[in-house]
Write a structure and sequence with these properties.
Elements: E1 7-16, E2 19-29, E3 34-38, H1 45-52, E4 60-65, E5 68-69, H2 75-85, E6 86-89, H3 101-111, H4 118-127, H5 143-155, E7 161-165, H6 173-190, E8 193-197, H7 201-206, E9 211-214
Parallel strand pairs: 3-8, 3-9, 6-7, 7-8
Antiparallel strand pairs: 1-2, 1-4, 4-5
This protein binds adenosine-5'-triphosphate (ATP) and magnesium ion.
């Protein structure tokens, strides 16, 4: 795998309809580090995550992974870069609802360019307390189960970077703990950088984070 770290933002601005949401002169996360992005609702946390993952071009500024300038890549190359290097957990999970739990994970493996690996799927499912759900369609999962499946999908391809938007919002304490420890252990196993957006105290307390970025404002 190419060395893609560190992730560095320079002079990044995001605006909607002429209203500046945030301005970030400089921020950096290195391989293997954990970073938290905090801020009130509407402050732009999900927008920032979209910028970091190549899904929304910043209105100004650059996002680089090592020598790769994310928004200098063609759209196809950027999609490929994301598929190979990043695991994403969105606030709305974007599962394929008509697919079973296992099929969602097989699809994610294939999109990351990795071979079928049922043993890894089974390990992740049992780490996330989903072992009985492998053949259930995603549309029939509870919100907490869907969130846990979304985490398994984010880490299954052993990405260099893991990005999560409010990963514990729908979970009780026990499942939140299981999810956080899985995210941590996967990040350690892959030497991945882990970037988490959260309001959740449990996440702040559970992580020895290397960096916090606090967005202000909100609406
Ligand atoms: N496509 C869009 N067009 C116009 N405004 C948008 C768009 N997407 C987001 N916004 C606005 O930008 C602001 C930040 O949105 P964002 O989703 O990034 O916030 P957030 O910090 O993730 O909030 P939450 O904690 O509620 O998830 C909000 O006021 C939102 O209405
Ligand atoms: Mg959000």
């Amino acid at each position: 795998m190419t060395v893609t770290t560190p992730l560095r933002l320079r002079d990044v601005h995001a605006a909607y309809d002429g209203r500046v949401l945030f301005t970030l002169p400089e921020w950096q996360v290195s391989a293997g580090e954990t970073a938290l992005i905090l801020g009130p609702s509407g402050s732009g946390k999900s927008t920032l995550l979209a910028i970091l993952t190549g899904l929304r071009r910043p209105d100004e500024g650059t996002v680089t992974y090592g020598d790769t300038d994310l928004y200098a890549l063609s759209e196809t190359a950027r999609d490929q870069f994301r598929g190979q290097q990043m695991g994403l957990l969105f606030q709305s999970f974007h599962l394929v609802k008509a697919f079973t739990v296992r099929q969602n994970l097989l699809l994610a493996l294939s999109l990351s360019g990795r071979p079928v690996d049922h043993e890894r799927i089974n390990q992740l499912l049992s780490a996330l307390n989903l072992q009985g759900k492998a053949d259930q369609r995603a549309e029939r999962l509870s919100v907490g189960e869907a969130q846990r499946l979304a985490v398994a999908r984010a880490v299954i391809g052993k990405p260099a970077w893991i990005f999560c938007d409010e990963p514990t919002s729908a979970l009780d304490d026990r499942n939140a703990e299981a999810m956080l420890s899985l995210l941590k252990s996967q990040a350690v196993e892959c030497g991945a950088g882990l970037v988490i957006v959260t309001h959740d105290r449990r996440v702040r307390d559970a992580f020895t984070h290397d960096s916090i970025l606090e967005l202000g404002g909100g609406v």
